[in-house]
Amino acid sequence: MGLFTKKTPCPICGGKISWFLPTKIEGEYICDKCSSKLDMEQEIQDGLTMQGFREYLAFYEQNRALAAGFIPSHKLDFGFLDTKVVFDAANRLFCMSAKLDKTIFEGAQLKSFTIKEDAAPLFAGSADGLVRYASTVPERLMSLAPQIQMMAAARRTAEAMERMRRDEDDHRPAYRPPMDIPEPFKQFNVELWMDHPYWNVIRCDMSGPIFSNDYPDPDSYLREYQENAGEMEQLALALMAVGFPGAGEVYAEPGMSMGMSAGAAIPRTAAPDRAADDILKYKSLLDAGVITQEEFDQKKKQLLGI
Ligand SMILES: [Zn+2]
User: In the prediction, which pLDDT does 258 show?
Assistant: First the structure.
């Protein structure tokens, strides 16, 4: 009989409790409809009281009003199918779900963010400005090239020897031992540090490129990497636009660690090629509606030093 014991109804809405793994708050079961509204840092949820949950539901309803007025201007898909973040440039909002079925964050709630390649910094943004770090991935990739060449040569020799051992009328494909080359890095790690009652930090990641075991090619790896790094740059620029509009941009000196303030970095003036590149990037953000014409003009003047 124990299996079919009637559970007491949801203390929030009186609804039926699911028989399958219902969510518990302060030792009490709540229904799936109420628990589907939960979107907060796991540690905060773990310490949530029933009173705290009622307060959260009031916050949730207010937040849904923000979702209703959300005008998507720019979204970034990383991973295979899922959009990880969508922006509303006009209202300075963002959401970690394209369906807008998760918390809507205000740009003003963003304290700072970092984008790393494994543990190595690539971008850091705050009210002090956007700091760009030189990636070590291309360099590490190039240092793998001799190893890849040696392994490929050894494999060709093994294949040739197998062909010599075989009968002439044996047309089965030769066995190709896989080449297992370690990738220069595993993933981009994004951390958004928030001033928010239910989120201290939002974390997400995107896998870096993977070598083909059959034919690991540093050039195609580099192309794919540059595409991924470009997406991370778009993310950094979009976060700056909603979080810290008007903040400047600085390049980190090689070897500068992430903890150092942006003020210690080199103010950007020189490097006209880089300025031209950046203007094109901001132009694409303008075209995508992430930034306004005014913001674009301001950025262009700043980049050109005029
Ligand atoms: Zn309920």
Answer: 53
